[in-house]
Amino acid sequence: MKKIDVLLGLQWGDEGKGKIVDVLTPHYDIVARFQGGPNAGHTLEFNGEKYVLRSIPSGIFQGEKMNVIGNGVVLDPLLFKEEAEALAKSGHDLTKRLVISRKAHLIMPTHRLLDAANEASKGSGKIGTTGKGIGPTYTDKVSRNGLRIGDLECDFDAAYTVAKERHLRVLASLNYPTDELADLEKRWLDATDYLRKFTFVDSEFVINNALTSGETVLAEGAQGSLLDIDFGSYPFVTSSNTICAGCCTGLGVAPRTIGDVYGIFKAYCTRVGAGPFPTELFDEIGDKLC
Fold first, then answer.
1. Which of the residues are catalytic?
2. Cα 234 from chain centroid?
3. How many CB atoms lie under 10 A from the CB of residue 256?
4. pLDDT tens digit string along 174-230?
5. Helix H or strand E segment including 31
């Protein structure tokens, strides 16, 4: 049985993981994302063209190799559609090489509003989220109220309405405006139809069967270890496990299957958002690095 190799960021993200993935992916049969949402961006360059991948694994440029969005990922259909359509225009048809876990959770339009409302309510204690609705989506997942990719195969409209109404009650209690919701929701629902073009799988079986068959798998982490929900600079962290253990839960593989772990760091630290940053420079050197 083959081992699954893992690529992680060792700082607060933006370590340049995309560049390393670019080097590593040709050596693997499958590339899989195991956590995070569209707040992460891996920048790759192929044939003089630059691409930023936020939800889609970085192996999509490697011919017909399989790419997997695992159960630990949260996915916004609208942002996914924009990303996938841009790649399709450049000649990369993802429908033939990308599969999505039925257990991955959906970021709803109201999750974005909840993200903004929660940040606004914290005043000076803001965490500095990207506002993509990722935190509220993981909150719904843990509280057992979330919508998953697999719900698109069932009575989705009813499940969506129940979830939306619950969110609207919370937003009303926070006195947060929902004027933009109607337009956002229409585009989001259109994007869920686009999402149905892709193959939904039980990715834990896909990955484990591949390892048993002797195929090589690279698990592609997002963000960085210091943003881990348990071991990062809490509460100024992301909402998922960004360390190697997150691969086990985010793809459904046993710890014994973990092989090589690539940790990526850069010579100087940066971080996005709020939170402690002891080595931050407020002088000319800091300005020059920026």
1. 14, 42
2. 19
3. 8
4. 999 999 899 999 999 999 999 999 999 999 999 999 999 999 999 999 999 999 999
5. strand 30-33
